[in-house]
């Protein structure tokens, strides 16, 4: 005999997408089915408990919802499908397929959320994820298990950069999360992943701008839970890409206002840091298993890095990539974990090439200022100006695709076009080995010896 279903009907209030009802034996985060007076149904999730007063986020929104509605609690939190069948599939913020493929009703589901990884099971970061983007690989390496955002502003090609990294990165699985995407951006990511032949190792969770805002809050959790399972159970190197975390924070703000919470800085709730940290801390290098690396987009309203979202993000993550004017800025970008891999898993000259290139680029920007102010330029200034132009053209364009060693070789060639060996102020052993004329002699000697 099936157990009798329990419905709760004592609705206390409806504010925005929040339904408050009196109920018992309910857990925080539990799902519920909200049945309206006209027979329509929607999912909801418990987001606040105050005694027997339970607040639910209604997925389809509060529009048309009546105080005559009744609620049935399901006794478990939000769940997402997880099986081999989800690769190459696209889900919305309610974990429903939206790609026209077969439904996954019979596939196992896993609970979303839960605690982050026990620190004892974490291994120190030690491997690099090569992206073939020189401004990342050479100057600010993306390290496996790192959590790092792309700071940018509206109108910049951050989605193009994110897609390019997803296509080119040497990761096993790509998990993509779209937060409040307009249809054009959703179509761009989908068509790009398909045309580049990587869709079979990609899972997409997308909340579009026209979808219920409450579903936006589930996208990061679904992405990270699925990524965690692939890393732990199948030892995969998983790269999680999400855009845009500012849209996620705005959704948190809107929900908080609907619940009549007292806002903190610029209307955002006081728990913004904690909400972001809970998601970012899922990045992990699992002992004896795979890894989860998180790369997100964080747009800065008004290009203001002190805005609450980038400001809180900067305290959580391990650096940032700063994208403006269509290029990755070498001064604003920083990877705090790059020293874990530079010269250890990369080529011996990596560190000195990186530092020398940035030094000359900085001198070139100073020379540009002198030139703009009509000061006389020294021969060295002229060489740094030439170098800065080549640097911008060959490395800063986000469409440039080069393997790390090829990029390092191009760095040496660029330095040789502008400066004599003694001007580099680098270790003589590296200059002897890698400065182009020397390298050509070494390669010629190697070929001669092989014959």
In a few lines, what is going on in this structure?
With 451 residues, the protein is of the alpha/beta class.
Explain this structure to me?
The chain is an alpha/beta fold. It folds into three domains: 11-77, Thrombin, subunit H; 80-340, Rossmann fold; 350-450, no CATH class. It has helices at residues 134-137, 158-168, 183-195, 213-216, 219-234, 245-258, 272-280, 308-316, 350-372, 379-396, 404-418, 428-434, 436-450, and strands spanning 11-15, 18-22, 30-35, 41-50, 53-58, 70-77, 79-81, 90-91, 109-111, 147-152, 173-181, 202-208, 237-243, 284-285, 291-299, 319-324, 327-328, 334-335. The strands form three sheets. Strands 8, 10, 11, 12, 13, 14, 15, 16, 17 and 18 form a ten-stranded mixed beta sheet that branches. β14 and β15 form a beta hairpin. α7 crosses α8 (308-316). It is elongated and about 80 Å long.
């Amino acid at each position: 005999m099936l157990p009798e279903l329990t419905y709760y009907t004592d609705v206390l209030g409806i504010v925005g997408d929040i339904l408050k009802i009196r109920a018992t034996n309910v857990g925080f985060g539990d799902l519920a089915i909200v049945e309206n007076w006209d027979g329509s149904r929607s999912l909801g999730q418990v987001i606040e408990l105050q005694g027997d007063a339970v607040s639910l986020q209604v997925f389809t929104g509060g529009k048309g919802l009546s105080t005559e509605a009744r609620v049935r609690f399901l006794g478990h939190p939000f769940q997402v499908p997880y099986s081999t069948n989800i690769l190459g599939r696209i889900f919305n913020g309610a974990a429903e397929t939206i790609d026209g493929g077969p439904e996954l009703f019979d596939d196992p589901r896993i609970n979303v959320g839960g605690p982050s990884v026990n620190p004892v099971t974490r291994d120190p970061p030690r491997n690099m994820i090569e992206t073939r983007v020189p401004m990342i690989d050479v100057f600010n390496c993306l390290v496996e298990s790192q959590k790092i955002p792309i700071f940018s502003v509206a109108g910049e090609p951050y989605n193009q950069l994110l897609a390019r990294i997803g296509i080119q990165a040497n990761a096993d699985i790509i998990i993509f999360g779209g937060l409040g995407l307009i249809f054009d951006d959703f179509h761009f990511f989908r068509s790009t992943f398909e045309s580049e032949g990587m869709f079979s190792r990609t899972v997409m969770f997308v909340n579009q701008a026209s979808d219920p805002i409450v579903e936006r809050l589930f996208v990061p959790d679904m992405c990270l839970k699925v990524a965690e399972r692939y890393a732990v159970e199948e030892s995969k190197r998983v790269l999680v890409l999400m855009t845009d975390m500012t849209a996620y924070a705005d959704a948190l703000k809107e929900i908080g206002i609907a619940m009549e919470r007292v806002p903190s800085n610029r209307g955002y709730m006081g728990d913004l840091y904690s909400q972001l940290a809970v998601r970012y801390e899922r990045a992990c290098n699992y002992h004896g298993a795979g890894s989860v690396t998180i790369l997100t987009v964080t747009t800065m309203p008004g290009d203001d890095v002190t805005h609450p979202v980038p400001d809180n993000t900067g305290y959580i993550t391990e650096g940032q990539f700063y994208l403006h004017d269509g290029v990755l800025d070498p001064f604003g970008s920083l990877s705090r974990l790059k020293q874990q891999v530079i010269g250890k898993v990369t080529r011996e000259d990596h560190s000195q090439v990186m530092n020398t290139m940035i030094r000359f680029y900085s001198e070139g920007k100073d020379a540009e200022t002198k030139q703009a102010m009509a000061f006389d330029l020294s021969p060295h200034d002229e060489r740094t100006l030439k170098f800065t132009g080549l640097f911008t053209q060959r490395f800063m364009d986000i469409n440039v695709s080069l393997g790390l060693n090829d990029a390092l070789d191009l760095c040496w060639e660029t330095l040789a076009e502008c400066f004599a060996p003694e001007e580099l102020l680098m270790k003589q052993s590296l200059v002897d080995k890698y400065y182009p004329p020397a390298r050509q002699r070494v390669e010629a000697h190697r070929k001669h010896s092989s014959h």
